[in-house]
Specification:
By secondary structure, this protein is an alpha/beta fold. The protein has an eight-stranded parallel barrel with strand order 1-2-3-4-5-6-7-8, surrounded by seven helices. The two termini are 19 Å apart.
Length: 203
């Protein structure tokens, strides 16, 4: 189980267009890869997850929304959107999976914690295309996670230059999409994030 950990967690979120970055992400220091490709059929999604797991290792791969595909592909965990099924239901029907959730406010975080989620992604932490007005900022991020026992990763507009601010605010790690979208640059970007995160190892 990757949580709890003293080493901040780095997650890459990949879809069918960026799945080729998986191996480079792992080589650069990514801990977890979330496969998020909601428009694919079950068969195509399972094929995509298997390809990512082949390069990244099944024990590093989460699938967005689809616990059944996680079970089918023998991967590691599921990432549940806020509008998805509760973590408690996944726990009942798919015991043993790592269960992450995506949340945007304090109430959602508290519900997820009560329902047994292993960790949460909270965002958008910073300005990101289509979500400029919803950016939380570092102070708001810190307030939302204050006192939680569940680890929370920051997501949304995070770059190596801003990742340290979220860790100082209490984040257990960060997740990102765009920095890992190009296979040719994914390893370099992962190494840049990893260098920042490894400076925040907690005793």
């Amino acid at each position: 189980m990757i949580f709890p950990t003293k080493r901040p967690v780095l997650m890459a979120i990949l879809d069918e267009t960026s799945a080729g970055s998986a191996e480079s992400c792992i080589q650069g220091g990514v801990d977890l890869i979330q496969v998020r490709a909601r428009g694919l059929s079950s068969r195509l999604l399972a094929d995509l997850v298997r390809r990512v797991a082949h390069h990244a290792g099944a024990d590093r791969v989460l699938v967005n929304s689809r616990a059944d595909v996680v079970e089918l592909t023998a991967t590691f965990g599921v990432q549940l959107p806020e509008s998805g099924i509760p973590p408690s239901v996944v726990r009942r029907h798919f015991p043993g999976l790592l269960v992450g959730v995506s949340r945007h406010d304090r109430d959602g975080l508290l519900r997820a914690q009560d329902e047994g989620a292993d960790f949460a992604l909270l965002g958008p932490a910073f300005k990101t295309p289509g979500k400029v007005d919803r950016a939380l900022g570092v102070d708001r991020f810190a307030a939302l996670i204050d006192g939680l026992s569940m680890p929370v990763l920051g997501v949304g507009g995070v770059e190596p230059e801003t990742a340290g601010d979220l860790l100082t605010a209490g984040a257990a790690g960060i997740a990102a999409i765009r920095p890992f979208s190009e296979p040719g640059a994914a390893r370099r970007r992962a190494e840049s994030f990893r260098a920042v995160l490894d400076g925040f190892v907690r005793i």
